[in-house]
Specification:
Keywords: Cell membrane, Membrane, Transmembrane, Transmembrane helix. With 211 residues, the chain is mainly α. The chain contains seven helices and no strands.
Length: 211
Amino acid sequence: MEQWIAMLLLISAIRLLQIRKISDSVSILAFQSFVLALTAGALWYQTKLPHLLVAAVLTLVVKAMIIPAVLHYTIKKIDVHRQVERVTSKYSSLLIAIILSVAGFYVTSRLHLPSTKFGAPYLPVSITLVFLGTFIMVDHKKALMQGIGLITIENGLFLVAQAISYGMPMMVELGIFFDMLVTVVIIGILSFRIHSTFESLNIEKMSNLKG
């Protein structure tokens, strides 16, 4: 089952690079976070560690429900149901995503990172999520998509912690979830401001502010 869950996470990250509408990317992100919650839930079932159950519930509520709701609200208010704007082409981004995925698995195998008994299958995918999230931020021009890339990176780091040590201490995880929620709210506010100023979410237009 772990391999299937890991595969779903990988597919969701690659799919984020192939979507046409920003609203679709939020739905994919919600699905990715839901699968991430399943991962924490599966590890809790196997280990009976209580903080994993808390992490699973928080991931489900915050990342799979609240954060997508905030992003969908932002999209609705500023009416950006348009196609995403990439630096690379659709097929080039797919090729780069495949290369980064292979690199993630290769790096994991070469570094011999420590992993837990039940978390080992998730480790290569977690590193790959970090790589793909970074590429999403670099490849997309709109602020909301860069925010989605940032959340994908955080999902990867969350999975790294799950794979290596069955997660972080509960207070640390609570702080991270709170920070992520605040970050998404700030992204929404900045998106409003950018759109109201430039009538676009393309961050390249911010170069007009240079003196």
